[in-house]
Structure formats: structure tokens, C-alpha cells
């Protein structure tokens, strides 16, 4: 029994391009310990995202990553957005564009964008996880990784 780590594949591509000091990827299932032992739990209704920060941020690498994500033509539009830090570097997020589009509305409801979409469009998470496989293949091809 093992969890599904869809986000890890994109993080491995990012790590190939530059060392990260922090990274986190979404999983559609995870292992939980219960009284009866280990079991798998699904969280597929929550759309995926991949977050990371480079040890040394290379502007050219970041620009290519952004371009790679932006030109992907799958079932969903994906984007890469950075949040600036005091040290001049960024924490980056790769996610379906719709996650960013509903952020303001979700905040009004005192929810995260993922919570908002899981509640209001639970099928979107599954659709996003399925499309993430296409994004991963596109990124591998774009960066010549097979």
C-alpha cells in the first residue's frame, strides 16, 4: 500500500533544473494509520499544486519553467506564479490557472482555493490530477528528459 505522489514527478523535473531548498507536491491519495492498521485515503477532490523554492534562483531557468508551463496545451490551463521574499528569491507555485482565479472568492468564504473548488466543483480535482500527467510529459519533453 502506498500513496500516489503525482506532484513528485514535476518536482523531480524542477530539481533537475536547479537545486531546491524547499518543495511540496500534491497527492491524490495518502496513507493514514487507523486502529485497524494502515489505509489509503483519497483527497482527489482537492486540485493539485506543486510548490518550491530554489537554493540559488537563476532568472533564465525560472523564465524557461514559466514558458514551459504556459505553452502546455492540455485539458486545463496551468500557470506558474511566484511570491517574492525579502531576500529577493521567490516561492513558486505550479497549479491549474483556475486555482488562482477563484482565490479571491474563496477568501471571501474564509476558505482556501482548494477547499472552495473541492466544495463547489469536486470533479475538478480529478480532472486536474489527470491533466497533471500530460503537463509532466510535456515538461520532460520540453527540457529533453526523455
Question: Could you explain the architecture of this structure?
Answer:
The protein is of the alpha+beta class. The protein has one domain (6-142). It has helices at residues 6-17, 59-71, 97-101, 103-108, 113-120, 123-142; strands spanning 20-25, 29-34, 37-42, 50-54, 78-84, 90-96. The strands form two sheets. The protein has a four-stranded antiparallel sheet. A two-stranded antiparallel ribbon has the order 2-3. Strand 5 and strand 6 form a beta hairpin. Helix 1 (6-17) runs parallel beside helix 6. It starts with 5 loop residues before the first helix and ends with a helix. The model has no long low-confidence stretch (mean pLDDT 91).
Helices and strands in order, then pairings?
Elements: H1 6-17, E1 20-25, E2 29-34, E3 37-42, E4 50-54, H2 59-71, E5 78-84, E6 90-96, H3 97-101, H4 103-108, H5 113-120, H6 123-142
Antiparallel strand pairs: 1-4, 2-3, 4-6, 5-6
